[in-house]
Amino acid sequence: MTTLRTPALTMDLRGTPCPLNWVKTKLRLEEMAPGAWLEVVVDDGNPARNVPRSAEGEGHRIVVITVTPEGVRVLIEKV
Amino acid sequence: MSAFTEEQIERYSRHIILQEVGGKGQRKLLAASVLVIGAGGLGSPVGLYLAAAGVGTIGVVDCDAVELSNLQRQVLHATPDLGQRKCLSAQATMEAINPDVTVIPHDLRLTSANALEVISGYDVVVDGADNFPTRYLVNDACVLLGTPLVHAGILRFEGQVTTVAPGRGPCYRCLYPEPPPPGMVPSCQEAGILGATAGVVGALQATEALKLLLGIGEPLIGRLLIYDALDMVFRSIKVARDPHCLVCGEAPTITELIDYEQFCGVVVGKETVS
After folding, report:
1. Which of A35, B28, B80, B273 has its CA 20 to 30 A from that of B74?
2. Res A48: pLDDT
3. What are the helix and strand counts (H, E) for chain A?
4. Chain B interface includes A27 (CB < 8 A)
5. Hey, CA dihedral for B173, B176, B178, B184, is it positive or negative?
6. Which numeric CATH code is attached to B32-263?
7. Which B residues in the span 23-82 are in contact with A, Cβ-Cβ below 8 Å?
């Protein structure tokens, strides 16, 4: 687990398929201030690969990705 | 800012994913209004794509009824719609595609007497008319109102598209100061039109309208795009603003709408619209 700082928001997107998991992540990021952190929890496999890649594709920073038995936690810093 | 419903998030997901659109752009489209002139060969793809895109308010101007010869290209209408008012058939199709959209049917012919009232209030106008009096009327009305206009024309296997942004580039009159002599340019009724050509050109108009609403990309301002379906070639010609243009030049003489039937030398009742 990261000990850097606590994200302002966590979204549970387990069970939400691609690309809707990214669409929901993106809509939330649009409402946030630059520099703010958002943690999303996604399923392992394609979601865990696609969501961070899409976030980076729009210029956001992936702070850390943590694989847990309950899902993959992706911590994103809004650009 | 209102939140999207779960259904809207899914419906517009492919738009929202686009970096140039996002949730912000989709909200712009839902709040926007476009007037489509003609529910025919061009107006059909325009209406379908604008409705599918979630443009919140779409006006449709057409005073004709659906005829069998329309159905080869006017994909807003289907066989069971024969005889129906075109603007109502268009409304039913578009609202069935997307219940987020409100379609305002204008069952009338645009004239100098009603054009300003019909057009004012819309963010963008898309001209899919197929006669010169209406083209000049719509151009002049849009210039006078300062409303962006996406113009197109089609014939046989060819089409052309340009975008008029009043004050920012040339208008239709800068491009064609005078109409051709009556009868010189045949209509689709006389010369024919490949249905799919109308689809391509109408889809280009819809793309331009969406770009204008979203404020993205490079619209066809000061450019005429010419599509040749037989050779399958697109060409783009630069068009300059005419300082002597009667409606958008430095000393305009057209400061209110004129008699466009007379201007185009049309014998009233004999012109065709498709």
Report:
1. B28
2. 97
3. 2, 4
4. yes
5. negative
6. 3.40.50.720
7. 23-24
